[in-house]
Each structure stands twice: as structure tokens, then as C-alpha cells.
Amino acid sequence: MGNNITRRDFFKVAGAGSLILGGSALGCAPSDRHAQSKEDTGIQGKMEYRINPKNGDKISLLGYGCMRWPMIKGSDDKDVIDQETVNQLVDYAWKHGVNYYDTSPAYLRGQSEKAAGIALSRYPRDSYYLATKLSNFNAFTRESSQKMYNESFEQLQTSYFDYYLLHAIGGGGYDAFKARYLDNGILDFLLKEREAGRIRNLGFSFHGTKDSFDQFLALDDTYHWDFIQIEMNYLDWRHAVVPKNVNADYLYEQVTARNIPVVVMEPLLGGRLANVPDIVADRLKEKEPQKSIASWAFRFVGSHPNVITALSGMTAMEPLEDNLKTFSGFKPLNDDETEFLMDTADLMATYPTVPCNDCQYCMPCPYGIDIPGIFKHYNNCVNGGLVAQSKEQADYKKLRRAYLVSYDRAIDTIRQADHCISCKQCVSHCPQSIEIPKELSRINRYVEKLKTGEL
Length: 455
Known about the structure:
Blueprint: H1 7-15, E1 20-21, E2 49-51, E3 58-60, E4 62-65, E5 71-73, E6 79-81, H2 83-95, E7 100-102, H3 112-120, E8 129-134, H4 142-156, E9 163-169, H5 173-182, H6 186-196, E10 202-206, H7 210-218, H8 220-223, E11 227-231, H9 248-257, E12 262-265, H10 278-287, H11 293-302, E13 307-312, H12 317-327, H13 335-348, H14 371-382, E14 386-387, H15 396-410, H16 436-452
Helix pairs in contact: 2-3, 3-4, 11-12, 14-15
């Protein structure tokens, strides 16, 4: 049997834990052709801005998400933020008109706010909008929540927050929301802070079920949300994948119906919409050869008029330059392009990737497992377009070796999926509601079958 398989065969193998393998013969790295042309890096036109109808803020349609700052090894061999590179990225973004920066006390294991504060404090405070969050997932007494709030001022070197969010409400439903923000009186405190001007806009970010979302949105009648942050992209528009998640078309339409501005998170799904399956990349490149794969995702979210900014976690200069190209002289999708992208999303939905956005909320694993690294490797392999299906397959030996070698190179042996004991500590932290132990077990079964030659 050759490499061309039917969709039914694909799912039969994928259900047993198999993977599509791509990249080089010994790896599953993203294909270079998914990136922008090296010869076309010029940024033309001016940054696209949206006016917040509630207060007149003029906000760059491209916002900087500070959840994925570049990391290096520190003196104690622990991962620390590369502050020098962060400063360079912020300098370039600010110079080219990006004026919205979104962070959280929870990002990068508590390091993000300080790095953002260092980088941004070099500029006039009124030249950018600062967003952060009350990320009191585990310690939500009034004392600990207020301590987190106060420390954010210090870390970010500011006397006010332009946009402040109740972080990721929806997980655990209304009971969790009540414990985190109501029973401890912290939401009343934040409302008073808004009245005093230390919070200029108060809203929330959401991950959860449709019922939960409807309930929290209805609280606008009481709390008068100034904005709401939702996960929105062309794949999640109608294919939110995990049953507990909500399609983005519903989220956007419901928020817009209440005339509440939308901030978009995960327009690239943690980079998955920049590193798409090869067949999808070919489709997008044929339509727009000079545009990057990522530009389609950003044009989609920016084409919705109630979106005031779309956050991108740009860890290096190349994606920053590419995104600036998209949002400088911005061109919304026309009807034909939108239909084309919806058909593309339907195609992508047939690929059995793990819906992991590499947010790192599941980390650190108490048993040292590199959960997002394992899923990222898996997804890169799936998107490559070849599958180690059976011993009868012409390239079986090559594909078998390719996966096993690339897996060992990507993930340290002691951090691989076989070390998961299904303690489920990670599950409640996942905003995508992924059944993480189940997915790790599925990947591990496939690895074991490759090692023993059972596949």
C-alpha cells in the first residue's frame, strides 16, 4: 500500500493512536513553505486601528499577546524570559503602531508581567494600552486575590490598567466564578477600582460551555462589562472541536448583540493555523501565493467590525514582521474569500490533531511530563501528510524510524507520554477542555506499537 490513504483509513489508524509524519526523514518540523517569502518583508501602509465605541480608545487591530515571550536558560538552568529580545520585539511593534499589550500574572509561570513592565515602561504611559488579568485560579481568598491585583501594578510599573479581565471564567461553571469573584467580595472591589479610575475597562476572558457563557454574558445587566475576550478564529468559528467549547460564531454574535467590544485571543490557535496540514497550505498558497498562511487567520478575525484588537503571541521578529504586513494597509476578506476559508476550515476539521494551543496552563506537570511539547510534536507530524499505517506500507520502515527518532529529539525520554500516571491534575487547568491523560495515553500506545513493530 502506498502513502495515499482514504479518509476512513486515516481515522481508523488515528483512532488507534497513529500519526501522520511530515518534515524531514528524521523529524516532524513545520515545512518552510508555510512561512512568508524571505524576499518580501517590507511593511507598507499604516497600522489599522479600531475605535472602541464605549470610550473612544484608538486601538491597533494587531495586539501583542505576552503569553509566549521568548525564553532562554537562566543561571540556575531554569527557563527565564529573554528580556533583551523582548525589548527588541516591543520596540519594533511600538514603532510600527502596535499599542495594545495583554499579559497575566499566570503567563510563563509568573514572569510575563515583569518582562512586559520592563519593556513598556521605556515609553510614555499614554502611548499604549495595557491589559492584564486577575488569574486567581487556585488561591482565591480576598486577601490572595487582592495581593495579586496589587502586585500587577508593581510588576507592570503602572498606576492604572486600561483593560482588566476576570481570567478564563467558564471553567467550573458558575460555582467556580462565584468562589473566585463573588463570595470573596473581589468583584465588588474591582467595580470600585473601576469607579476610581485604576481600572479603566473591566471585562472577562472566557473558556467553557454555551450555558456558562450565556449566564456570564447576562451578568452584563448587573456589572456592565466594558469588553469581552473570546477565542475566535476561522477553525473555531464552526469547529470548536471539544464538546465543552463553544463555536466562535455564537460567541461573537452574542457579544456583538449587546454592543460589547470584542478582544480576540488565539486567532492562530497557538500557531496551529500558521502550521497547517500540507494540503491546506497548498490550497491557501494557490489562492494567495504572496501571502503567508497566518495572514488568512488574521484577516478573518479582523474582518469582523466589532473586534477591537486581535492578540498574537509573537516570539520572534519574523512573525511580528509578517503580522505587521497584514495589519498595515489591512484588507478585510470579501465574501468569496470568506466562503473559501470556511471550506478550508471544513477540510482542517478532518485532521485528528490535539486541540492544544501551547498556553502552558497545564505546566508544570508534577511528574515532569512535557505535555504541550508532546502535543506539538504530534500535531506537526499529523500535519505533514504521511502516515505510518502498517507494515504493508511502502515507506513503513522509514516513517517508523522518523517518528521514533524525532520524538526522542523533541522530548527528553523522562518527559515523554509513558510517564503519565493519569493523576488528572492538568485537566482542570486546560482552557480547551482537553482530556490530557487520555490523549497522552493514545500517543504513548502508538509509540509502543512502533517500538515493538505491532503496527
